[in-house]
Every structure is written in structure tokens, then in C-alpha cells.
Structures
1.
Amino acid sequence: MTTEFTPYASLAGGLLIGLAAVLLMLSNGRIMGATGILSGIIMPSSVAELSWKSILLMGMVSAPILLSLVFGYPAIVQVVSSTPMLVLGGLLVGIGGTLGGGCTSGHGVCGMARLSSRSIVATITFMISTTIAVYVLRHIIGL
Amino acid sequence: MRFLITYLIGLVFGTGIMISGMANPAKVLNFFDVAGSWDPSLALVMGGALLVTFFGYRWSFSRAKPLFANKFSIPTRKDLDTKLIGGSMIFGIGWALAGFCPGGALPAIGTGKIEVFIFIASLVAGIYSTKLARLSRKIAA
């Protein structure tokens, strides 16, 4: 499935993601990492952790609802993977993100912005890994 | 007040994810499909987010402490280990299979799409089992 190049929407979205990361650091002193946020809700180490991470998640989940109700902006979620691929993908993302200590938001945005060597290595590693895996899945296996 | 601000930050993040295309697996996978239906949009998401965070963090860290906390909680580890690299490789394979990363999928829960719930359920299982395994190793040691 081809998708249209959306430079303005993607840049604006990126700026907002960055703004949220900065505001979370400025207010709570925390890294905006999605894996860490979900992980802290599943297995919280304190009531305080559970509460701020749950509230942050509620805000995230509200976004597509408010965008569509208030602005009539349609949420575009085009899933191209089969159910087994989604299941295996979710498992591997969860295992890999936890072992690697972060994902696209935690390492790729927050860690890279701090010029953390671990985050730079992690981001380069998963970007290469994803590129190779997409190539193999689409052009060798033909899924 | 703190909770309201935290909620609004989640809303800003989710809005950024939704309009950027990060919650759209077709778009995410096309970014990586350089040999096929390549869509470079996601480079602008990453670039825009990094630009704001790079300067915004510097400004934040120039302050004595966060507004609602006693200190900035920032990872301090600098070592590169096999878990970091192996984990990131596994993460990439999962991302390629599903087209969702955690940051893209969490706001997408609000769309109510069944595929998002399937991915999130597996994601939770993956995180939970890995943390459980780590915990039991710690107890055994």
C-alpha cells in the first residue's frame, strides 16, 4: 500500500511530540518513553509512578477522540499486517524494548536529544534492524 | 494541577503522534521500505521532535529542578551491552512485523481499532514476561 508524502503534517506532529517530551521533563522531570510508561503501568514500583503514567496514557488515548470529535480530523490507522504478524510483532517489540531499555520515543527522541551514547547506538541499531526486516518481509518472503 | 498538566502533556504527545503518521502502520512501514513504496515523511517526524527536544531539554536542565519534582530523573548509564544492542535488534524485527511502535500504538488505542488492541495485548505480554524473567533472575541471584 502506497502512502502520500506528508511533510507539513509530519513535521508539525514531530514538533508536538518534541514539545510534549520537553514539557514532561520541565514539569515532572521524566523521560517521555512509551515503553517505560506502559511498563510502569503494568508493573509499577510505586503508587506515584502508576498515577502519573496512567494519567499521561489517558491524555494520549484522548488525542484521536478529541481530534475527531472537535476538529473532525480523521484518525488514519491503516494496518497492513495479518493478525499473527501483529501478535508476534507486539511480543517482539515488548521484549526488545524492555531489554534495550527504550523505544522510538525514549531512545530515538529523548535519549538522542541528550546525546546519550546508549540511545544513539540503540536507535541506529533498531532503525537498521527494521529496515532489513521490512526488506526481507516484503521483497524476499513477499508478505 | 500537576495531574491536569500531565494529562495535557499526554494529549499533546498523542496529537503529535496522530497527525505525524506514527500511528499509521502503512506509513511507518513505507518509511523503511526504501526499495519499494518509500515514504520519507517519518524523517520529518524524527527531525522535528529532535529539534524541539534538543533545545528544550537544554533549557529545562538550566533550571534548578522540575516544577513538580525534586530532581530530573535522567538515565545515567553509559556502557554499551549486548542487552541494549540485542534488544534493539529484536525491537526492530517486531516493529517491521506490526508497523506499530509503543509510542505510535498507545494514542491509537483511542481509535478503538481491534488491530491496535491485538498489538497492545501482545506488547503488554512481551513487556510483562521480560520484566518477570528479570525479576526471577534477581531473586534467584
2.
Amino acid sequence: MVNQAISPLLQIVDLCVSVEDQQILKGVNLTVNAGEVHAIMGPNGSGKSTLANSLAGRPEYSVVSGEVLYRGEDLLALEPEDRARRGLFLAFQYPMELPGVRAWQFLKAAVDAKRQHNGEEEMSAREFDQFLKDKVSQVDIDPELSRRNVNEGFSGGEKKRNEILQMAMLEPDLALLDETDSGLDIDALRIVSEGVNKLRNPSNAVVLVTHYQRILNYITPDFVHVLVDGRIVRSGGADLAHELEEKGYDWIREMVS
Amino acid sequence: MSTQKIISRNTSSDDLASDYKWGFTIDIEEDAAPKGLNEDIVRLISAKKEEPEWLLEWRLKAFRHWMRQNFEEPSWAHLSHPVIDFQDIHYYAAPKTKEDGPKSLDEVDPELIEAFNKLGIPLDEQKKMTGVAVDAVLDSVSVATTYQDMLEKSGIIFCSMSEAVKNHPELVRKYLGSVVPYTDNFYASLNSAVFSDGSFAYIPKGVRCPIELMTYFRINAEESGQFERTLIVAEEASYVSYLEGCTAPMRKSTQLHAAVVELIALDDAEIKYSTLQNWFPGDKEGVGGVYNFVTKRGKAAGRNSKISWTQVETGSAITWKYPSVVLQGDNSVGEFYSVALVNNYQQADTGTKMIHIGKNTKSTIVAKGISAGKAENTYRGLVKINASANGAKNFTQCDSLLIGDQCGAHTVPYIEVKNPTAQMEHEATTSKVSDDQLFYCQQRGIGVEDAHYMIINGFCRGIFQELPFEFAMEASQLLKVSLEGTVG
């Protein structure tokens, strides 16, 4: 399983990424250790989602230069599915609908892929049923969601909750939450946040990308980083988020210019 | 020529090996008819099959009608192929004898064996389908007859068309051509003139057929055009589920296949007809493959009768096929559920016709087209509500899925309504397997290829649900085999 001897969990060194020939990330440095929660904040277009998606290996995000080590291994050399099987999870800002694909089947394929990677047997249908049931109650999600087709006809809030269920099923070592709070009402935000909190443990880490401080009332970060124009311009503790909320992103922009 | 094997889904592979019981016993030397078609060939076919005079006459009428069409095959479909030289085809060739066939699977094209293995076809069945001589198993023919006995006890007739002509001529004479007359279309005329064999099923009044009837089309390594003729009659309040499987890919040059299937359902009767079609699609460059020009039609003749077609079409270089229902009886129901997958240079122009004549008749059409490679896929369907059809209803849904950017999907619905009380619904969508969907699956650890199959299977879900369970598994597997190397 997790090799906790290797530290840090994630090390990003001078990462530059472009999308459609436009450079978005211009040298990001970040180190994440097991047990930590990092919040990446920043104004629209600063590169927050680009960071999360390029770590997951989304094809349209091309890495221009830089290095990312995940448990000491070159993350960027791995296919997206291999990153996932090694415990990297991205909660999507816009989860995709897979018409006709049963959530049960999808989740089982995902769980089995990871187990296979770890040299474990595929789960039996009965085992998996129980496992799914446990996770559904753990993250307090409507069991109906797992009986439907993957995200098909789901509301925005249901899709986000479904992401948290998937995260619970896959028990990632590194969870990247890409604006998981956007478009959620207070109740949904609470359920999603509680879900994330329940999944936290000393051997995993969360990198939470958000525009607003709101979700940080529920998930307390150890570190807050402010991303402006493709660079982390300031890092601090949870207080930094409050300061940002008060003074706005213009304050940071002025400070760094 | 194909010899046809009639088995049930529960038949064991030993039963399958008893194939030669149904085969021809005519000496192959005497049976080598020259290429081309004329009245003498039609007479020869009829004579070899020892047919009664009325059937020969019917064949000859069909032949003369076909000749009057001056080799002008229908050209309205969205298909393109070189002109077929109908005089360059063998219309009668005896099946190969056991001695000519491969002696063991070692002599069979390894690619074919690999395909069988992927489909999970048992070894004995593989031998049977590749025409391997299986003398040792041939001796144990008793099991196959068990099923025949069971069917016969309930009064069900299930046999080859040739046998039906011999043993039940009155039934064949009454119904043959009653749904698809020999004048129907170019290929139906041709089939009527030269049909080789096929299946015949008759379900008597009030009988619910206890097993799923199944035909397996076996293709010999070297032969001519395939002209099967199938006829199913369901008497009042009877039920039958019929499966037609051609899961053996054929490895050969371009070949014509022109079959006719007729179904008749009387009052309160139901016929469910499912097809898995996987004839050889040609190679990746579009060389070879089967030209599949098939006429399938059912007549829901009785009150409250129901005819349901379910097809999964993944094979053939060209598919031209419109399984249809004539809804003649009041309250009768017609259904068409279809998945048509084309890859490489395959072309499919397929759909259905629902002809509403009786009152309160109801039809449902769900067609799913999948296109990959450089293939072209057309849904073509007619819904016709006659003036007599008060309260008729139709629901049509056509969905197309594109894989890659060099294939095509087309939807051509025809609607003719002559009764103002009709209710029509039509939905159509076209979508692609998007990079975002694939990435979503990959991010959950699912590889690109598996992700494709998962999404494609999801797209076909509604159709696969209509298939008997094992057939659905096979269908899903077929899609996978057909797309291999295209995705991922």
C-alpha cells in the first residue's frame, strides 16, 4: 500500500503548463506531505483548475517544463489511469455524464482497477455491494445515486456529492478537489465537506482548489496558497484565507506587483 | 452454401457436432452447377431438393419477375459498392464433404480461432463452425433428438425449410410468400427463385414454446451466395422466442447474402425474433466481406398480436436490412430494437417499416447506430399510418454515436400519416464518445479501451435489455471484438 517512508507525498517543482498554446502556469512550486490539507486560492483565470487537471493528466493540458514527484516517482510520465491507480484522485469541477453506464458497474471497474494495480483480487459482486453500502452511509449520500447511471440527469449538487462518494470508494492518498464548492447550496456544501473530513487521515492529503473562502469554514486547511497569474505568490496558514476574504484578490495583486 | 443447424439455446456442443445429420448426401461431383442464373438452374435446385411442382412453379415465377428487373438492384440506400455481376455467382453448390474440410483445428486460420476464443465459443462448437471433421462425436446424435421430441410433444414443428416442404407442404404452401411476396423487391425475388434452405417453425394454438428456438448459420470455407428462407407461424395465443446467431466471422472475398424471413402472428400470438449478425465485414482496407441484403418482415395479422425484432448488427461489408411489421390486427404491437455498429469501411443502411392498418395499433422503434473508422451508418425507417388505423401510436428514437472523426451517421425517417387520430413521437440524437468522458473514466483508473466499451455498452443498454440474457452477454462481447484496435 502506501509507502509512508517516502516524504513528501507530492513535490511540484517549477511547473509550467500551457493550454492551447497559451501558458497558464508559469513556474509553480508546492510541497504536500501526508496528513496535510492545502487550499489553493486565487482569482478566476489564475490557473487553479489548470494545476489540478494537469496533475491528473488531462490531455489538453500540456506540461512545458518542470517536475512533479509523487511519492518520489515521476508523476508526469504516467498515464492518467496509472496516476489514479496509484492513489491520485481528482474531484471534477464538472463531472461527466455517462449515459446508460450504471454507477455500480463504473465504481466496481474503478475499484477493481486499483486493486489489480495493488496486486489484489477483484472484489466479488457481494463484497462490492457491502463495500458500496458502507461508503454510501459513511459519506451520507442518497443510496439512489449509486443505482442510477453515472451522473445522468443529476443536479449539480448530486454530481458533486457523487464525486465525494467515488472518492470514498477509491480511498485516495492524494485528493485534488477542483472547485468542489462551486454551485453548492449551504446544505450540499456541508454534506460534501463532512464527507471530505471523514476521509482525512494521517496518511493522505487533500489539495483543495477554490475561489471562495466559504468551504474553508468546513474544511480547515493547514496551508493556504494564493495563485495569481500562474504563480503562487503567497503562502500561509488558515488565516490567510480570512484575510483574502476581507481584502479581496486585488489586495494580493497590488502586493505582488 | 450454408447448411443450417437447428438447435436450442440449451443445446450442448455435442448436439452441435451432429450437424451432418442435417447435411446433404448428394455426391458433390454431380452438384457442381455452373455460375450464373437461368431457368435450368432454378429447375436444378428444385429437383435436387425433390420439391413439389407448385414450389418449382413459384420459384420460376419469382425468377421471371427478377429477370424483368434487368439486374437493376435498388439504388436508393446510402450505400456504394461496385456493380454486382449476378451471372458470376454460383447459385447452387453442394456443401463440402467431410473429407474436404480441415482435419483438425490446426488446419484452420488461426485468426478465426482467435476470434472464436474471444467470443467464448467452446472448442467443439468451433470445430463444428469451421467444418472440421468430427466423426467421433458424430456418432452420438441422440441428444439433439431429445429436444426435437420435446418440441414435437407440444405440437411445435421446428425443422429446416427443406424438411418442412417435404413433411408439411400444406403449411409451407399456405404461408410462404404471404408476407414477403416474390414481387416484393429485387433481392426478395432473387431469394424466392433460388433459396437454398432455412428454418421453419410452427407454434400451434395456445402453445408457449418452452425453449428459445435458435438457428446457427454455419458457413463452409468455399461457397456461393447465401439464400436462406425462414418462415415462422404462430397460431392463436401462442408464443415463441427465436434467436438467429451468426457469430462466426467468415474469411473470404466479397459474397452476396440475400435472405428472406417471414413471420406470421395470429390472434393474441407473440413472436420475438432476435438476431446477432457478425458476418465477415471485410478487412481493414475494406476488401472482401459480405453484402448482406436481407428482407425481414412480420405480419401481426391477428387481434392483440405482437411481433418484436431485436437485432445487433456488427458484421458484413454492407448491411441493407429493414425488419418490418405490418400491424394488421386491431390492437397489434410491432417493435424494432436495433444496434448497428460499423467500423473501418463497413456500410449499413438499416431500419424498419411499421405499417399500421388495424385500430389502436402501436409500434416502437429504438435504433442505435455506432460508427467508427471510415464507416457509414444510416438509419432509414418508415412509419405509415393508414386511414383505417384509428388510434395508432408510434414512438421512434434514433441515436447515433460517433467514434473518431472520419465516420458518418445519417438518420432518414419517413412518416406517412393518413389518419388524424395518430400519435407520433420522434426523438433523435447524435453524440460522440468525448475526450472528457474518457478522461473522467481514466481518472478513476479505468483504461481508455475499457472506458470506450463501457460508454458504448451504456449507449446500447436499452437494446441489450431486449435480448435473452446469454445473447446480451454475447452481443456486448461482439461489440468489443468488432471495435478492437479502433479505440484506445
3.
Amino acid sequence: MTAATNSTPKIRATNLHKRFGRKVVLDGLDLDVAVGESVVVIGGSGTGKSVLLKSILGLMEPEEGSIEIDGQPVIGLSTGDREKINRKFGMLFQGGALFDSLKVWENIAFGLIQGGHTDRAKARDIAYAKLADVGLTPDVGELWPAELSGGMQKRVGLARAIATTPEIIFFDEPTTGLDPIMADVINDLIVKCTRELGATTLSITHDMASARKIADRIAMLYNGKIIWQGPTSQIDSSGNEFVDQFIHGRAEGPIRMEVRAP
Amino acid sequence: MNIFQPIGKAFLGFLGAAGRLTLFAVISVSHCVRPPIYPRLIGRQMIEIGYYSLPVVGLTTLFSGMVLALQSYTGFARFSAESAVPNVVVLSMTRELGPVLAGLMVAGRIGAAMAAEIGTMRVTEQIDALTTLSTNPHKYLVAPRLIAGLTMLPLLVLVGDIIGVFGGYLISVYKLGFNPAIYIKNTWQYMESLDVVSGLVKAAVFGFIVALMGCYHGYHSRGGAQGVGAATTNAVVSASILILISNYLITEMFFAK
């Protein structure tokens, strides 16, 4: 294992390649995320944002390239070692991905009980505290996920993502499918919760309002590569025609939208 | 020349699928015997497979036992061998009909439910969520179902055997005029422990097959509701075929001369 230093990025992806059949999704992607930094990767539908996230999470294996977490290479790890690395992670899925068969509080406490081996009663107390952190009342804890609205499911997903006090939190399209007000509520909660934890975050979205709110740095993914990255304040003056087209949502421009998802 | 191309492609596809299934089974079985074990999940699956399948297995074996008594009575009457009805009922139920009927009914009920549940978890990213929460899906989802299938189907079959023999008894005594005491005596006298044991071994194998196929097809389902539907169908069809094939192989193993 490589010892992490202050200059070691929390997440480093180098020269990632991934293809599905003849479709090249990642084509030599490089991305660093510093400790405590919040990076948002933007890009159109089907550009490989989810593939990037799944590759870092170990849900998918790139054909080429390396991924390091705290300086430790994580591609090809054994199941046990991968589970140890995953204990550093929290993840908010696009659709919430709450477990239907468990109550809301059990969903939030899942990582503590199964992964962290915390006592069930203690995990329940932590779950209710996290529920309050995301602005939900205690009675929600006894409901089933199917009884919640989309916005509430996102909040519960966020509570589950932060319950284990992870070092790195991933957000997959956190505001997709929500009305603008609820989207802003979720963005505020993401900023609040990640600041309180001091966590490093990597998000993927095509919602520019969300990206502007939660990102320290924005990176644009196009054709399997990061074609521009810089501080959020510079996104409007990037001088990159691809970025300009994307952030202004124009149909005309150099970006040709992918029809098929990878 | 070209006719060999699709044959070769299909054969390679079959080998690939067999390899993937074997690998899935080996990984899942290894998680059955390595800690941590989840007693709560195993218990829940045992109730689902054992307790909730009891009515359907009970009804199936009851009526099968009744039909068996009627059919063998009318058939054996042609050569005056009606007295063999108790023996035929008990041997058929314990050796064949009990395990095979219970296996097929449980494949339809439980195999489909497992494939649908795990398939839905796959397409809604719940299985990915398990992995990111440092929980191995094979250990959390598959192993409890395999253990429950392996242990509960023999118990179901044992109960089904008794109900099936009772069905034969009901018809023989109340419709065909057999003496109750003689019927029970003949049933006991000609039944050997190997008849029951072979049926229970079959049941354990069938329970494993049903759970394995349900989990395998659910775990690998793709593409939303249609994919989950296809996984459910494939789970039931493949489990049913494997049950019938393994039934022959186990029968050969126990009874071939």
C-alpha cells in the first residue's frame, strides 16, 4: 500500500479506457480530486459520466488505466480489500436505490450494521439523527421506501450516504427528477452535510444549477475525455465552445448528442 | 460451410452460459460456508420457502396421491393385482411424485419470486448500493436463499409424502373399499428407508437448483421491466428442466442395477 501524503489526491483516475462493444465510452480519461474538494463532472447524457463513477466505485472495471484512492491502486483488488476501500465511500444513487424490504431507518443504518458491525440499537439512534440532519421527522423512519415521495427518497438516500461518516461521497445526478425547489433543497443539504463531515465529493450531473451550487471545481466530460476543468467561478468564461454550448443548453454547436446510452 | 457458423456460435454461447452459472454457483456456495452468516435473512427465506409453500405442495401431493390410487386400482384390476395399490402409492409418492411435484411447484412459486425480487434490485441499482455499502450481494442475497432452498424443500417433501399417501388412503378406503388397517400395514410393510431417503436427497438438490436459478437469472437481469420479466421466465423454465434432468441422474445413482 502506498502511504498517502498531503499532496496525494484523494481520488486519482489516470488514462481510463472503457468500451462496450465498438462504442468507446472512456478514452484516456484523467481526473484528480484533492482532499476535501468538491468536484462535479458535467456532460450530456450517454457521455460516460456514470461509467466513470461506477469504475471508481468498483462496480465496473476499466480495460486500461489506473484508479487510486489515497494513493492506493484499487483496480483488481480482492473482494475483501475492495470492501475495506468501500468503507471510505458514501453514495447517493440517481433513483435513491433504497432497499424496498427494509424500513427507512434500516436503510440509513444498513452500512453501520452490515459494513461497520455497529450494534443495532446504536445504529438506529444514528439513523434517526441522520434523518433529522436531512430535514425529515422521526416518524419517517418507520415508513417503507415505497411510501416516500421522490424528494424524500433522495433525502433518505443522502442520509444513508452520510450515515457511516465516509471520507468520500459520490452523487449520481442528485437533482434529476425533482422540481426546482426540491432540487435546491437537496443541493443545500449536500453542501451542508458534506461541509459538516469535511468529506471529499465527486458528483456527476447535467443540472448546471446544481453543479454551480455544490462544486468547488467543474470538469466537463466529452468523447470519453475531460475536455475542460476549472474553478466553478470560471465556468462562464471558460473560452471552451463545448462548455459554452453545454452550460447554455444550446442545440446548435460542436456537441453532437449521443443517441444510445453506453 | 456457413451452416456450421450458427451451430458453433450457439455451442460457444452455451459453454459461456454454463461457465458463468458454474462460477456463480461456486462463489455463492463459498459464501454459504464462510462467516458472516445472516441468520435473520436465512430465517426469513426459510419461512418464505417452507411455510408459505406448504398449502400449494400439500394440495398438489394430496390430489396426486388420490389420482394415483384411482389409476393404479383401475389399471391393476385388469390382472387382479388391486392389493398392490398401497405399495404403488407409497413408492411413487416417496421416490418420484413427492420430490418432483414439490420441486416444480416451488420452482414456479419461489424461483419466479426470487428472480423478480433480485432482478428488480438489479435494475433499480439496489445491488450496486449493497456493494457500495461494503456488503457482498452473494453473501447477503444469494447465500441465504440457497441455504433455505437446500434445507426447506426436503422438509416440504416429507410433509408432502405423508399428505400424498393420505390422499391415496382416503380414496382406497372410502371409495374403493380397502380395509383401513390392511392398507396402512401394506404401506408400512413395503416401504424402505431408501425410498424416503432418495426422495429427500432429490428434494435437497431440487431446492438448491430452484434457489440457484432464481438468484442467477435475477442477478444478471438487464434492461428494466422487460429484463426482469425475462429473468423470471428463464428462472422457472431452467429450474424445471434441471429438476427433471437431475431427477433422472439421482434415480440412476440410487436405483440402477
